[in-house]
Design a protein that fits this description.
14 strands, 21% strand, 5-stranded mixed beta sheet, Beta-Lactamase, transferase, alpha+beta, 50% helix, 14 helices, Heat Shock Protein 90, EC 2.7.13.3, transmembrane, 5-stranded antiparallel beta sheet
Length: 538
């Protein structure tokens, strides 16, 4: 049986089951209609015989005939004519003892009535089913009263319809019942066929086994994917999200049928999902993660089926990239320092050869002392070596670009209120943003106004948390744009694909419950202030 079921498509099985069900319902309905028709005919016959018997019993001619010597003579023609007119099989007038005065069979006149008469003798009309001299019948027995004698019962009248006549009447209605049943069966089969065709189109003609396998494979793939997958309908409402997408976007349990905005996906990612435009390897930020987004419209036979979105987590990769960038910057700083040291060494050697030892000592120790003082100050104040190396690397990198990166007040940074990878991303992006701001402001190490290109950084760590200030004397940020400076994609540069650094800063600050603000520096430029509070348990 299972093998047979697997051979037919879902549509065929639905059609067969519907046909069987319709057939059973039609048979049951037809049987119910037949029984109802029989019951209706029987009830009508009971009403007919009772009303006819009451009419005969109340007729003055009937009472007058019973007062005579031979009631049969006047009553028999009347009852015979009434049987024809009323469509009944017998009208029997009798004495209270049941002796017949009339009967369709003259041979039975004068004989005793076959049936119950006691209730009628007691003055109560009644109707019953009884097998009498003409066979099974529905009959009523009504008392005949003499109004001139105080309503005394002077006789009885019985009117009946045989079962044979009832069957004939029902037989006349049976073809109509059967015709209606056959028509209903035909319409139901046509409807089942139409439903089957629709199901066949929707299921692509697949059988239950094929559909079950397709679902199992689909479910396995959805759970096994290391990428997040979203399916949105043409109206932008969520149809499906796999486990990775739920994790990346922190989607709630009740998510199907809701738009990304209703699910709390906002910012640049929310705008992309709401827009529905095709996107290839777009970088977007959520509250906690950096994700790579690919989005494309799904179409079939020219019909828009919705949007398919894939998400890849780049949070760890971005953190590693930032850390690698800091290491590379430190390496570049070492290379630059080595290059400068070689130049200074050649200068010192030349001064010694020129017999100018005093000038050689002053030249060799002057700048070296300043550099060593900065290194000693950072390594003493900042116990995290990666953070200290980041700042030193940025100082050397700035020097190569003709920018003076000054390290202002640095208090003891011993217990960071955030992971060191986040601190590297946070400080590194703030410094890079400042270096880029002053880097294009002019030439020969000066801004357009002629002032030296300068960037300042200050670090403060106390019981309340970590405070960071990075300032520059670049072009600054217009007051009307300071609200959007931390939004993904904001940049003052013309190159495409920029504007991620400050968005990462905003993400880290929000994740750790901090604050970030931008203001105007004295004399022009921008000042970025970031504070990360120290939470309980860290």
């Amino acid at each position: 049986m299972r093998h047979l079921r697997s051979r037919f498509s879902i549509a065929t099985q639905v059609l067969l089951m519907q046909c069987v069900l319709v057939l059973l319902l039609t048979v049951a309905g037809s049987a119910a209609a037949v029984l109802q028709a029989q019951a209706t005919e029987h009830a009508a016959a009971r009403r007919q015989v009772l009303s006819t018997a009451e009419a005969v019993a109340g007729a003055p001619s009937t009472v007058a005939a019973l007062r005579g010597k031979d009631p049969t003579v006047p009553l028999l023609p009347e009852t015979t004519a009434l049987e024809q007119q009323a469509g009944v099989d017998f009208v029997v007038v009798m004495t209270t003892a049941g002796i017949r005065f009339t009967h369709p069979n003259p041979a039975l006149i004068g004989k005793t009535f076959v049936g119950h008469i006691a209730p009628a003798v007691a003055g109560k009309a009644f109707t019953e089913n009884y097998r009498g001299s003409l066979g099974p019948s529905v009959r009523s027995v009504v008392p005949i009263r003499d109004p001139q004698d105080g309503g005394r019962i002077i006789g009885l009248v019985s009117v009946g319809i045989t079962q044979h006549r009832l069957s004939s009447l029902f037989g006349q209605q049976l073809p109509l019942v059967i015709g209606i049943s056959v028509a209903a069966l035909g319409l139901a089969v046509l409807g089942a066929y139409a439903v089957g065709r629709r199901v066949r189109r929707q299921t692509r003609g697949l059988g239950p086994v094929a559909l079950a396998e397709l679902y199992e494979h689909h479910d396995a793939v959805m759970h096994a994917m290391r990428e997040g997958l979203l399916l949105l309908d043409p109206e932008g409402k969520l149809i499906l999200a796999n486990d990775e997408a739920v994790r990346l976007l922190d989607l709630p349990a009740a998510r199907t049928g809701r738009t990304p905005a209703e699910l709390g996906v906002d910012g640049s990612l929310g705008a992309v999902l709401a827009g529905g435009a095709d996107v290839a390897d777009g970088i977007h930020l959520t509250d906690n993660r950096v994700v790579t987004v690919n989005q494309s419209t799904a179409r079939r036979a020219g019909r828009d089926l919705g949007t398919v979105v894939t998400l890849r987590d780049r949070t760890e990769l971005q953190a590693l990239t930032d850390e690698l960038a800091s290491v590379q910057g430190f390496a570049e700083a070492l290379r630059a320092s080595n290059h400068e040291a070689a130049n200074r060494l050649h200068t010192v050697v030349t001064l010694i050869e020129l017999d100018r030892a005093a000038e050689a000592v002053r030249f060799a120790t002057g700048e070296l002392a300043a550099q060593q003082q900065l290194v000693d100050r950072l390594l003493t104040a900042v116990e995290e070596p990666v953070l200290a190396a980041l700042v030193l690397g940025k100082v050397a990198q700035a020097r190569e670009r003709g920018i003076e990166l000054g390290v202002g007040e640095v208090t003891a940074v011993r217990d960071l209120p955030l992971p060191v990878t986040d601190a590297v991303t946070l400080i590194g992006n703030l410094i890079d943003n400042a270096l880029e701001a002053v880097g294009g402001a002019g030439g020969n190490g000066e801004t357009w106004s002629g002032a030296p290109k300068q960037v300042w950084i200050e670090l403060s760590d106390d019981a309340s948390g970590l405070s960071i200030r990075v300032a520059d004397n670049g072009p600054g940020i217009a007051p009307e744009r300071r609200e959007e400076v931390f939004v993904r994609g904001f940049t003052t540069k013309a190159e495409a694909g920029r504007g991620l650094g400050l968005a990462l800063v905003a993400q880290i600050v929000k994740r750790h419950g901090g604050k970030a603000a931008v203001s105007e520096a004295d004399g022009g430029g921008a000042v970025f202030d970031v504070s990360i509070p120290r939470r309980a348990g860290r």
